[in-house]
Design brief:
- The chain is mostly helical.
- The chain has one domain.
- Helices cover 81% and strands 0% of the residues.
- The longest helix is centred in the middle third of the chain and has 48 residues.
- It is elongated and about 80 Å long.
- One of its GO terms (molecular function) is ATP binding.
- Pfam families: ABC_membrane_2.
């Protein structure tokens, strides 16, 4: 049987309530308590990601300021704006590196915690014997523990900074769009608004 085809007696993985319960159970292992190193690294990642987004926004504003400076032919303003741009770019690259460093540290911490938890379950009550001798449908459970944990933690750590910043970016840009929409309504309805004071 080709490895891509699912086993007839094994259900296909689904994104359902069972998945959510299992994922939350894993999160309880990865974040055992509030002042744990994983929780502190995650909070640091949140702060770094927010600061990184703020710097990226400031870098995006610089081109419009350049046009103003070039139009006025202010050489000292041009030098100051160039120095600001270089500073923001260096700060942005430093924050990106720090972001990746924190994600890699979380990967190592999560992999260690999850592997230790699974091994404690594996050696409890002779589960290792049951899996190796009595269950023929599970091959190499010890290898699966090490490889699956490595893949899971690697993927989760690579997605962490994007998942952390997404709600804040979504809220911010929703606010900006709503604000622009209200301004557009005022512009479109300027005559009736002025007429009715």
């Amino acid at each position: 049987r080709p490895p891509s085809s699912p086993s007839p007696h094994r259900p296909r993985p689904q994104l359902d309530l069972l998945f959510l319960r299992r994922f939350l159970r894993i999160q309880a292992v990865l974040f055992p308590r509030w002042p744990s190193p994983s929780a502190l690294m995650f909070l640091t990642l949140l702060l770094v990601a927010l600061l990184e987004q703020l710097v990226i926004y400031q870098v995006g504003v610089i081109p419009s300021q350049y046009y103003e400076v070039l139009g006025s032919k202010d050489f000292s303003g041009f030098k100051a704006l160039t120095a600001l741009a270089v500073t923001l770019i260096v700060l942005n690259s430093t924050l990106k590196s720090f972001d990746q460093f924190i994600c890699n540290q979380m990967y190592v911490s999560w992999r260690k915690s999850l592997t230790e938890y699974l091994h404690s379950c594996y050696f409890q009550g002779q589960v290792y014997y049951s899996l190796h001798v009595l269950r023929e449908d599970i091959d190499n459970p010890d290898q699966r523990i090490s490889q699956d944990v490595e893949r899971f933690c690697r993927q989760l750590s690579s997605m962490a900074s994007k998942l952390v910043i997404s709600p804040f970016a979504l809220a911010y840009y929703t606010y900006q769009c709503f604000h622009r929409f209200k301004h557009m309504q005022i512009r479109v309805n300027a005559e009736p608004a002025a007429f009715y004071r």
